[in-house]
Design a protein that fits this description.
Elements (H helix, E strand, L loop, with lengths): L10 H6 L8 E4 L6 H7 L6 E5 L15 E4 L6 H7 L5 E7 L4 H5 L26 H7 L2 H12 L4 H12 L7 H7 L9 H17 L1 H15 E11 L2 H13 L7 E2 L5 E2 L2 E3 L9 H6 L7 E7 L1
Parallel strand pairs: 1-2, 1-4, 2-3, 4-5
Antiparallel strand pairs: 5-9, 6-7, 8-9
Length: about 300
């Protein structure tokens, strides 16, 4: 069954950035609802597209197209799979790092605080063992604090971790409602949604090891892209964007600059956009979830 369950942000802009050749080979590292893949396929004539997604639901959206090779796995293994299928280099790589609207809207997946009765799952790939429930019920205080501080940038991370540890001694966390009830007194009256969004974001990132996967993925793009190949990445929160920005500027996610013998800075990429591109008001009006999207484009030297 083909159905679109996610409206991609910056769709045409991000695909235009690849400067697609009709007979080229491209990677859509985050297939999702297939919006970017369909746009890429529409511009190919004899070319090939390799798409990755770890979610089984993504396979419900695959078009019947022999030019598409779909791989149900994490994009952190991109290089290995390309080698397995005999694909040496590609002309462009696109990644939309946002969580699909489908995930937020499917109550049983536990990605959103809008569905109190849903379980604390938050797995992108259903084959993974780690869930948000496991994190909340088993992580020690120090590890919980790190998750909330690093991945949610929550100022009261220590206090939040203390509450979680204290509450679970009396009752195990099982549902979204149970989590919200436990931390209710910490939720600001003025901006409660933003606070909860940060809590859920931090748990989701930890469950899916998103930062580690992104680091491995970005590092592999240097090897898989041809000289002149394009990298087009859309991020949605500061942690992702910082890693992408650092990587395309310096060749590493830490942003550590290295220089050659003559003092010139070394980087495997040329910046196509010095600043991130963002959606315009017309797109935001149609797709409010695109508001936080940032697109960065680079070309392999």
């Amino acid at each position: 069954m083909n159905r679109v369950y996610h409206v991609p942000a910056l769709l045409r802009t991000s695909v235009d950035a690849l400067e697609i050749k009709a007979n080229g080979v491209y990677v859509d590292a985050t297939y999702g609802g297939g919006g970017h893949s369909r746009e890429i396929l529409s511009r190919l004539d004899g070319g090939k597209l390799i798409a990755f997604d770890r979610d089984r639901d993504a396979e419900n959206n695959l078009p019947d197209d022999k030019r598409l090779l779909f791989i149900r796995n994490n994009f952190r293994f991109m290089r290995n799979f390309l080698r397995y299928y005999g694909i040496g280099k590609v002309d462009g790589v696109l990644a939309d790092l946002g969580v699909s609207s489908h995930h937020f809207d499917e109550s049983e997946r536990g990605f959103s605080f809008r569905f109190p009765e849903s379980s604390l799952d938050m797995r992108m790939g259903q084959d993974s063992e780690l869930t948000a429930r496991t994190v909340l019920n088993t992580y020690p205080y120090d590890k919980l604090k790190r998750v909330f501080l690093e991945y949610g940038e929550i100022r009261q991370a220590g206090k939040l971790a203390t509450v979680i540890v204290d509450v679970r001694e009396r009752q195990e966390f099982a549902s979204v409602a149970g989590l919200i009830e436990a931390i209710d007194f910490m939720i600001p009256k003025s901006d409660g949604k933003q606070f909860l969004s940060k809590v859920f974001q931090s748990l989701r990132i930890e469950v899916n090891k998103e930062m580690t996967a992104l680091k491995h993925f970005l590092e592999q793009t240097v090897d898989v892209l041809v000289t002149g190949g394009r990298l087009s990445v859309i991020s949605y929160h500061s942690l992702e964007d910082r890693m992408v920005k650092n990587f395309i500027r310096t060749g590493n996610v830490e942003g550590l600059r290295s220089k050659d013998f003559y003092g010139n800075e070394i980087s495997p990429f040329t910046l196509i956009t010095k600043k991130a591109l963002v959606p315009g008001e017309p797109e935001i009006a149609v797709n409010s979830r695109s508001r936080s999207a940032k697109l960065r484009i680079a070309e392999k030297k």
